[in-house]
Amino acid sequence: MYTYYISVGSNIGDKRGYINSAFHLLQGHEAVSEVISSSLIETEPWGYTDQASFINGMWSCKSTLNPHEMLSVLQSLEQEAGRERLIHWGPRTLDLDIILAFDEAGSMISICDEILTVPHPYFWDRTFVLEPLHELLPTFTYKGVTISERLATLSLT
């Protein structure tokens, strides 16, 4: 059994509708359980900034799917929402990223291959990821720094 923390975002069309639909589809997946959502927040775009604001949040869930299988499920949910990958970090109906994954013993999983990188390579620099993650995992520590300390540091920049 794995525990996943999945970043959720949308900035095209019915943003909350895309997120809610994908959430319910994930809840209904036979290999996924205990799907929980953080609050959803409105945020400014990151990276490519010439686009509409985002609705962002974080989901946690348990699953028997390994990280590559979970990625496949998340990509199918993005496709179901009509996701097109035209501009790197560009507008999207739905964006689902595995931010963190933990094994059954609670140890953080580290993966870096041509398909998947976990922990997500930019998560520690993005308040729109860390704020909802903090809501679901308030005691999280990464490289000796608590998530609360990291959010405080990012708010100063």
Automatic annotation (TrEMBL):
Annotated pathway, please? Cofactor biosynthesis; tetrahydrofolate biosynthesis; 2-amino-4-hydroxy-6-hydroxymethyl-7,8-dihydropteridine diphosphate from 7,8-dihydroneopterin triphosphate: step 4/4
Q: Does the keyword Aminoacyl-tRNA synthetase apply?
A: no
GO MF assignments: 2-amino-4-hydroxy-6-hydroxymethyldihydropteridine diphosphokinase activity; ATP binding; kinase activity
Q: Would I find Iron among this entry's keywords?
A: no
Would you say which domain of life the source belongs to?
Bacteria
Q: Which GO terms describe its biological process?
A: folic acid biosynthetic process; tetrahydrofolate biosynthetic process
Q: Which Gene3D superfamilies match?
A: 7,8-Dihydro-6-hydroxymethylpterin-pyrophosphokinase HPPK
A Pfam family that the UniProt record links to this protein? HPPK
Q: Which UniProt keywords apply?
A: ATP-binding, Folate biosynthesis, Kinase, Nucleotide-binding, Transferase
Record EC number: 2.7.6.3
Q: Which intervals hold domain 7,8-dihydro-6-hydroxymethylpterin-pyrophosphokinase?
A: 88-99
Catalytic reactions of this protein:
6-hydroxymethyl-7,8-dihydropterin + ATP = (7,8-dihydropterin-6-yl)methyl diphosphate + AMP + H(+)
User: Known NCBIfam families for this protein?
Assistant: folK
Q: Would you tell me the protein name for this molecule?
A: 2-amino-4-hydroxy-6-hydroxymethyldihydropteridine diphosphokinase
Tell me what gene encodes this.
sulD
